[in-house]
Amino acid sequence: MLFERWGGEQPLQGVVRVVEPFGFTKISALGVEEQRVNVIADFTSPRQDWERLGDGYRVEARFVIWQDHDVMQVPAGSLFRRNEGWAVFGVENRQARLRAVQVGQRNGLVAQILGGLNEGDQVINHPSDEVEDGVRIRER
Questions:
Q1: Which of 16, 38, 76, 101 is 20 to 30 A from residue 114's alpha carbon, by CA?
Q2: CATH domain 69-140 topology
Q3: What is the pTM of this model?
Q4: What are the start and end residues of each CATH 2.40.420.20 domain in the chain?
Q5: Burial of residue 122 (number of CB atoms within 10 Å: 0-12, 13-18, 19+)
Q6: What is the rounded CA–CA span in Å between residue 33 and residue 36?
């Protein structure tokens, strides 16, 4: 995991030791109910990088669930369900082209593409109902 906004220039690194088995509801400053769970983590960054942190310091944590190098990805908003799988509209010669794709890991913002696209292919993000295979498009 990465500890950000802790007061230093670079994120600190750590590893999750325990995710407590129960959650709780907390009301945010804006009055929104938030579901939370306590997580206990150990720093893996060198001690001199984090030793000035004290009890009760506020940090923001980012959890790395999966990572890989050289991953082809598309915005999650470009994906849609088609039959039993996933598809996107690619762009070829100013026309939308329906492309079946194989999706790997997803995080809600982007999705890993395992097949169906080539590096550098353009896709239409958030295609409207008016977009279909072969329709002429223009970039906005």
A1: 16
A2: 2.40.420
A3: 0.68
A4: 69-140
A5: middle
A6: 10
